[in-house]
Amino acid sequence: MNKLIVFLLALTLGGNLMAHASVMSTMSHTLQPGLDKARLQLADIEPLIQHYRQVPGITVTELGRSVENRPIYMLTLGRGEKRVLAWSQMHGDEHTATAALFDLLHYSTAPAQAAWQQEWQAAITLHIIPMLNPDGAAQNSRVNAQGIDINRDALALQSPEGQILMAAAKQIQPHYAFNLHDQNRFHAAGDAPNPATISLLAPAFNDARDVNASRQAAMQLIAYVKPWLDQQIPQHVARYNDTWSPRSFGDNFAAMGFSTVLVEAGGHRADDHRQVARRLNGQLYIKWLDAIASGAYQQASLADYEALPFNRSGGMKDLILENVQVTQATTQAQIDIAVHFHTEGDRVARIQEIGDLSVHSGYHQFDVSGLAFRAGRAYPLDAALTLDTAAHLALLTAGYTHFSGEPSRLTSTSRLPVLVNPLRPPQQAPQLRQGATFLLVNQQGEVVQALLNGQLIDLATGQIRNPLGT
Ligand SMILES: [Zn+2]
């Protein structure tokens, strides 16, 4: 769907988007243009790398090459004694921090920030490796071109990308290491009914999860920013799983004595491209540079770290319909239905969970009490059919959710999702993994809402209640 239309539809929904506007407007740093995208690849950042080659005070090094011979770059700024290493996108499909690192460079090198830049660069030497896994980025995959998860290769070191990161770290011997990732959008922030937009962790360096001086410093860096994060995104901040992960870089770097901070950028409502997490990441980097330069983080209380709730895995769903009346044979029930949007491959929305979902929260959530599930019928494409939105709404009202037959007979200008010969057609009652397409009828038996490939449509107005991208 056209982004402008998505935006306008989002505006009509009101509430959610307004909540974000306040987050955005409090941000003081400007973003690097061109990086608000569904994915970032090497071609997206290479012009920026070439630009920074020309900027005085920045050294660009090619550390080596990926399996498919793509360059892996490092940018170095500052001349201070405190050494900081930050790397992003070791998982190729996790690019939020890559954009935020370029936001930091964009901000730090702006003329207006000359004084600030002087200040932190006197105390810190900062090494940035943006996009450690350019092959994975090219495929939008987590793993590298060998199929190796680089973040499980810190011991074996069989991937060139893992070798490059380990060699850089051994050479730099950073005091502080920032391991920058994206997490899946289904983690909730503890018991809060919200996604964990930012999750932080000072990873363990042993199975006992002991705390030594360097891990304590990492915990304090996190504690230092927690009050600010709580202010920016209340109840959207969490702690990542702290189980010791012996094959991972963060855990190994912690064991090597580097104060290591894991940052996981997560989902946010009405924010498909994770721009909220991106802005917050950039702001966090600025705060951490200040706190490391001044040592201010050493005053932070570990209680603030411990107060971070853990990620609640699977706590968030893409869509929850509450209180759907379902009749199956003689069994009548009132149940919740969760829908999952498969963002890879076929992009089909499927029924993910059925029953009491009151412990979960949805990016979109609608109480449909008083409405009953009804399977839609197939409208046969026996002859040529021209479908506009009004005709589509009329067919839905008459009980047809999808079309069967020769697809070329259908000419559609409908702005609603059009389903032709769906692979998993509706069943008489909701079933797990079935396509999320069905009707909701009122007590008079009239069809009043329709779910089409996970999008809920109010038939009286034609409004999509959960437009994609919102
Ligand atoms: Zn990751």
The helix-and-strand class reads alpha/beta
The strand order across the widest sheet is 1-2-4-3-5-9-7-8
CATH level 4 superfamily of the largest domain: Zn peptidases
Task: Please identify, by name, the CATH architecture of the largest domain.
Answer: 3-Layer(aba) Sandwich
Percent strand: 25-35%
Q: Strand count, sense and closure of the main sheet?
A: 8 strands, mixed
How does the overall form come out from the CA principal axes?
Answer: elongated
* Share of helix, binned: 25-40%
Number of strands: 23
Indicate the multimeric state. Answer: single chain
Would you kindly provide a written description of the structure presented here, covering whatever features stand out?
This protein has 470 residues and is of the alpha/beta class. It folds into two domains: 3-312, Aminopeptidase (3-Layer(aba) Sandwich); 316-464, Urease, subunit C, domain 1 (Roll), CATH 2.30.40.10. It has twelve helices and 23 strands. It has helices at 3-13, 15-25, 42-53, 96-108, 114-123, 134-139, 160-172, 213-232, 249-255, 275-294, 302-306, 389-397, and strands at 58-65, 71-77, 82-88, 124-129, 176-182, 188-189, 198-201, 237-239, 259-265, 311-312, 316-328, 331-341, 349-355, 361-367, 372-374, 377-381, 385-387, 400-405, 410-412, 438-441, 447-452, 455-458, 463-464. The strands form six sheets. The chain has an eight-stranded mixed sheet, with helices on both faces. 44% of the residues are buried. The model is unreliable at 1-27 (pLDDT under 50). The structure holds zinc ion. Residues 91, 94, 181 line the site of zinc ion.
